[in-house]
Amino acid sequence: MWKNFMLLLLFAALITSCATKSQTGAGIGAAAGAIAGQAIGHNTEGTLIGAAIGGLLGYAVGNEMDKADQAKINSAYETVPDGRRSHWVNPNNGNSYTVTPQRTYQNDQDQSCREAEILVTIDGRPEKMIQRACRDQYGNWIAQQ
User: Fold this and answer.
1) Angle at the Cα of 27 (from 140 to 125), degrees rounded to 5?
2) How confident is the model over 90-131, as pLDDT tens digits?
3) pTM, 2 dp
4) Phi and psi angles of residue 85, each rounded to the nearest 5 degrees, phi first
């Protein structure tokens, strides 16, 4: 069971290593779905079903997010205090975003990092994900897998 789970996480990491935003969303969604499927079903089938559903939802979210939305998410990482919300609606596609930074911390490489809950509503369907971002050597926020 854990062997399949680890293989799935490795696959998700490979997908996201050189990926577009939709591919990155799919990889992150698959990993989150696998964890949820394992927690709920406690078996390989639950893990695989969770990974499939999470991958599809993650792909859809990543595919719909444009550069302006990503810039606003990065701005939330930069300026919004932990526990406060930042909300906007993309005027080009009508998608709405609510970003709530949850915590700020230093990682093992001594980078400043933040964890945020992101609620995206696409075509009236809300999707929630947790994203982590850390500063690179130039001070830019980079989403972590």
Assistant:
1) 90
2) 998 899 999 999 999 999 999 999 999 999 999 899 999 999
3) 0.55
4) -105, 150
Cβ contact 98:77 at 8 Å: no
Q: Please give the angle made by the CA atoms of 32, 132 and 72, to the nearest 5 degrees.
A: 115
Hey, where are the domains in the chain? 2-64, 67-144
d(CA 141, CA 80): 13
**Nearest-angstrom CA–CA distance, 47 and 133:** 26
Place of tokens 């993650």: 58
The answer to whether 44 touches 68, Cβ cutoff 8 Å, is no
Tell me the two tokens of residue 53: 């559903």
- Report the DSSP beta bridge partners of residue 17: none
